[in-house]
Amino acid sequence: MENITIKDILEITGGELLCGDENKVIKDFSIDSRTGNEDSIFVPIIGERVDAHRFIEGALSLNGATFTQEHDRAEGDKPWIRVDDTLEAMQKVGTAYRSRMDLPVVAVTGSVGKTTTREMIACALSSGLQVFQTMGNQNSQIGVPLTLAHLSSRDQAAVLEIGMSERGQIEKLTRMIRPDMAVVTVIGVSHIAQLKTQENICLEKMDILKGLPEDGMVFLNGDDPFLRRYRGKLPFKTWFYGLADDCHYRADHIVTGNGGTSFLFHYEGGELPVNLEVMGDHYVRNALVALAAAHQMGLDLEAAAGKLTGFHGQRQRMIRAEACQIIDDTYNASPDSMRASVRVLSTMDGIRGRRIAVLADMLELGEKEKEYHYQIGEYIAGEKVDEVFVYGDLSREILRGVREHNDRIVTRHFPDRESLIAFLTGHIDKEDIVLLKGSNGMRLNEVTAAIMEKE
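Below the sequence we write its predicted C-alpha cells.
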C-alpha cells in the first residue's frame, strides 16, 4: 500500500487506537504471526480451529502494528487498533485502497479456468500496459484484500481473480474490487455440495456484475449453456467468446499438436492467426477472452497475440521425460477440466506409443459425485485413449463408465498411490504419453515425481 497511515485506517474502519502513533505508515497486511515487517499490520483472524489473537505478542516482534477485536486496553509504542471484526477491517482497508487507484480492473470468476484465464488476460494486456494480477491463488475473502494491498501507482491495469465457497461471497468480493470488466469462464459443478445445483452456481458467479459501474463490460463464455442464456438480458455491454458461430470473439481452424495449439481469431473488423505453446480447446477460449479484453482496451491485437505465444501458465505442464512424455495436470480437477485434459491426450499428433490416462478422484462434488465420475468414463470411452489407470474409491466409477462403453480400452484400479507408482514405473515406455489428472488432495504430483525419478 502507498500513503496509508494508522490515522487513515482508523477513519476507514471506525476503529479505536489503543496505543501507538497514528502517523505511522502501513504498507502491507500480515495474517501469519511468523511473517511481516515494521511497515505491516498484523490481522489476527479467528478461524474454525485457531484464534490468531493468541499470537499478537509474537507477531509484534516483526510487525509494526496490529488489529484486535478482543482487547480494550494495550500499552506500547506500536499501534493497536480495536475493531469489531479484524477480517472485515482488513477488507474495508483493501476496498478503500483500491478506490484510490485510477486504473482499469478486470475481474475473473467461474467454476473452471479462473487462474489460467486471469494469467492469459494479464499476459495479453502486458503487450501495452504495466499489469498487476492476483498473487498465487489469493482469490478469497482473505486473499483479495491481501492482493489489493500490493497495487501500486505504477500499475496501469489489474486482472484480479474472484473465488467462492458459499453463496454471497462473489458479491462481497466484486464490491471490494470494483471491476470495470467482468469475465465468467464456465459454470461447472465445483462447490455444488454447498450450492446444490448448477443454476445456483451460475447465479452466484453472475453476482460478479454487482460490482460493475454503469459503463462496465461483461465477457461470457458463449459455449457454456448456462451463460448463453444471458444474451440480450444484461444492462451492460456484453461480449461472448468461444467456438460457436454467434460469438463476438471466436476461433476456428484449431490445430493441436507438437506441444501447442494454433487457431484463427475472429473479431469485429478482422481476423488474426494465433499460436499458443499450450494444448487444448480450453486454452483457446482463455486466449479469446484475453484478446477480447485487449481489444476493448484499445491495445494492438498483433502485439497481444504475440505475448500469448510465449504463455505457459502454472497448471498444465508438458514434460518430455526419458521414461515417457507426460501431461502433468495434477493441480486440481473438476468434470469440465478432466474432460479438457483427456481431450488434449486424445488429440495430440505424432504419438507412436500408447495414450495412457492416469486419473484420481475429483473431490467436493456433492451428492452426485459418483455420477460425475461415471460420466468421465463415458467420455473417455469415446476418445482416442488406450489405457486408463486410476486410484481412489470414486475413480472406480470412471472405470465402470469406460468398461460399459468401450471394452477396447485397458483399465485397472489401484488401492493407493504406492501400488500405482510401482506399476507405472515398470509399465510405461518412452514412446508413450501419460496424462496425470486428479484433485490436488489426491497428490498425483507424487506420481509425476516418481516417473521423473525413473530417469
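The chain has three domains: 6-85, 101-309, 317-453.
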